[in-house]
Design goal:
The chain is an alpha/beta fold. It folds into two domains: 4-203, Vaccinia Virus protein VP39 (Rossmann fold, 3-Layer(aba) Sandwich), CATH 3.40.50.150; 210-273, Orthogonal Bundle (Helicase, Ruva Protein, domain 3). It has helices at 10-16, 33-42, 60-67, 82-89, 106-110, 126-135, 149-156, 166-174, 210-225, 231-234, 240-246, 260-274; strands at 50-54, 71-76, 94-98, 115-120, 142-148, 175-183, 196-203. The chain binds S-adenosylmethionine.
Length: 275
């Protein structure tokens, strides 16, 4: 078996297979192993951990994850990377799945183990994938994900910040969410138009169960759909002032100032009124 150390540098491997980044697949590669190793450290994975990586592409992050001793399953949509990733699979613990990450069954991939998701996400499917991982019955042990900076800021924003909105409330109700690394556009090949950042999310033991989460989704959609309005106006159709007072909130508050716990209280009050 070839060892990981014996593999050619990523640029050489790409050139040897005649591969160029494709815009349609959101391909911006991390070819510097110092950066991918740092991401693997931030993911806090190690020997024997099960990791699902989405979008390995040429495999820079995959190599770094494999070096930790983790057992990696990588899901890649672009068939062109098969030979390059098969070289990597021959050098360590890697299972390759060629397909669309939006359609895979993570529970089956994890095979009953607690699995960590790590990904330099394709920008065009980053948010739908995050929502899938946060809201489906299968729950990852942790998620370490690259987003464009503006999306990362929205995920971790505190109440009152300009970036605070529905995505942050839902992500933070389910997980502890932290921005752990800023990554400038120049770190990628080819560089994207925007800077990126890595967010690490760890699901909370007391994350809302499906019914509570549905209520939270409904209330945050209404409240942030008209974020400049007072709650008593934006939530009129869902119970208005009575509901807001039952949740212990100020009907004159605006969505952008209500903390995550306040939205959870609103969800509970809404569920209670529906019986
Ligand atoms: N992980 C590599 C790196 O860091 O260099 C590549 C990152 S690149 C931003 C995103 C990768 O996701 C590409 O390899 C792309 O082909 C893949 N991809 C895009 N859409 C996908 C999808 N729906 N399912 C699985 N992989 C996808």
């Amino acid at each position: 078996m070839t060892s990981l150390d014996a593999l050619p540098p990523l640029r050489e491997a790409l050139a040897a297979h005649g591969l160029m980044a494709k815009k349609a697949f959101g391909q911006h590669f991390l070819l510097d192993l110092n950066i991918t190793r740092k991401i693997a450290r931030l993911a806090e994975v190690g020997e024997g951990d099960v990791v699902i990586e989405v979008g390995p592409g040429p495999g820079g992050l995959t190599r770094a994850l494999m070096e930790t001793g983790a057992r990696v399953t990588a899901v890649e949509k672009d068939e062109r990377f098969r030979p390059l990733l098969e070289d990597l699979a021959a050098a360590g613990e890697l299972t390759l799945v060629l397909g669309d990450a939006l359609a895979v069954d993570e529970a089956a991939l994890a095979g009953g183990a607690a699995a960590h998701i790590v990904s330099n996400l394709p920008y065009n499917v980053g948010t739908p994938l995050l929502i899938k991982w946060l809201t489906e019955p299968w729950t990852p042990a942790s998620l370490t994900l690259m987003f464009q900076k503006e999306v990362a800021d929205r995920i971790v924003a505190p109440p009152g910040a300009g970036a605070y909105g529905r995505l942050g409330v839902i992500a933070q109700a389910i997980c502890e969410a932290k921005l752990v690394m800023d990554v400038p556009a120049r770190a990628f090949t080819p560089p994207p138009k925007v800077d990126s950042a890595i967010v690490r999310l760890v699901p909370r033991p007391d994350r809302p169960e499906p019914r509570r989460l549905d209520a939270l989704q409904k209330l945050t959609a209404a409240a942030f759909g008209q974020r400049r309005k007072m709650l008593r106006a934006s939530l009129k159709a869902l119970g208005g002032e009575d509901l807001i007072l039952a949740a212990g909130l100020d009907p004159q508050a605006r969505a952008e100032t209500v903390p995550v716990a306040g939205f959870l209280d609103l969800a509970d009050a809404w569920l209670e009124r529906r019986g």
